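Thread: uridine-5'-diphosphate complex, take 2
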Amino acid sequence: MKNNQVVLYIIVPCYNEEKVLPLSSGMFLDVLYEMINDRDVSDESRILFVDDGSKDNTWNIINELSDKDDHFIGIAQSRNRGHQNAVLAGLMESKDYCDITISIDCDGQDDINAMKEMVEAYKSGADVVYGVRKSRTTDTFFKRFTAQSFYHLLSWMGVEAIYNHADYRLLSSRVLEALSKFEEVNLFLRGMIPLVGFNSTCVYYDRNKRMAGETHYPFHKMMSLALDGITSLSIKPIRFITTMGFIVVLLSFVGIIWAIVGYFNHTTVQGWASTTCVMCFVAGIQLLSIGIIGEYIGKIYLEVKHRPRYIISDRVGIRDCKSLNDNK
Ligand code: UDP
Ligand code: MG
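Output below.
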């Protein structure tokens, strides 16, 4: 809190965004100045770009922006670690300097005007404000269908996640402090934040098309995020396997009785087809089950290693770097 005004840090993850950044950075700055001039937030507020190991000119652009205006600051990850880790790096980097953070993608898809409503909601007592998309009309049918199935699957698996909310959200510094105690390496922030608790509310907005450049989430990456989300927050799939195992065992008892009765009645005909079907089915279930259990073992392996979730290699525009070596 600076002179009773809220200090806001806007966290913007960027990966190979040289086409978008020159366009969207101006938008972010305009909205920040508007909020500063309206005295909604303090002049100490900043826009923090997190360069997620880009291979293009993104980091140079961030440096140029920071030279031009003090409100732009940046950190660079030592290599590409993925969107979730980039957002976390930004949140943890800013938590000691600000009262609230808002994380937002850098491609202009999320309506920046919702930020003002988010800050108002914070002032009315919310520690977490979720940005929720009103509709998905700008998405292709395929993206809409996969995204909606994903949210349904998540809730079926017992993961608490807000429907149609991605990573556009406001968090207060006490939520950030609590979040820093969650040490998992497999990150799925939108499923973790509800676990942190505190007062929360939603702000609804329309999602636009990307301003330029291409999405970094093709189908296989979306699938891997979905799998991470489920396996890092729910053990229901393993329970499901156990249940399936029971059912198959019960069914096989019925099969055995049927076979014995058939044997004594001398009706044990060829039976090749049914045997093959059962074998294939059981083998399929076993492989699937081993695969799912393997996913969890893989997760445990990564968690046990306790590797840092991000490593910051460069900073620009940040005054005093008290968390310089605190990269966990
Ligand atoms: N992003 C990142 N690291 C990555 C991939 C993406 O920091 O490895 C950033 C990207 O620059 C953007 C945000 O995450 O700001 C969302 O990515 P994108 O727009 O490609 O995803 P979509 O909106 O299509 O789901
Ligand atoms: Mg996008």
